[in-house]
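SelT/SelW/SelH family protein, Komagataeibacter melaceti. C-alpha cells?
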Amino acid sequence: MTDTPAAPRPQVSILYCTRCNWMLRAAWMAQELLSTFGEDLGGVTLVPGSGGNFEITVDGQVVWERRRDGGFPGPKELKQRVRDVIAPERDMGHIDRRP
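C-alpha cells:
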C-alpha cells in the first residue's frame, strides 16, 4: 500500500510598504487569515517592500491590491476573497450572511 502525498496547501503572501509603516496592518491581516484558515494554509509570509505597496496574494494570484481595490480590506472581505481562491465551496457562517 502506498501513501499519496497530500496536495500542497496554499501560500499567502502579504507585501507591505515599510516606509508607510504598514507592517502592523500586514501582521494583523496575517493573524486574521491564520485564525480562520489555520490548517487550510501552508503559511502566510510578510514581505517588506516600498513605494506604497500593499498586496495580498494566494499562490501568486492577487486577491487584494491597495491601489486597484481602493485602500485596505476589512477582515470580512479579505477572508471572503481568500476563501474564494482556496475553498470556494466553504461556508464562512456569519461572515457570508448579509445584515
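Residues 14 and 30 are 8 Å apart (CA to CA).
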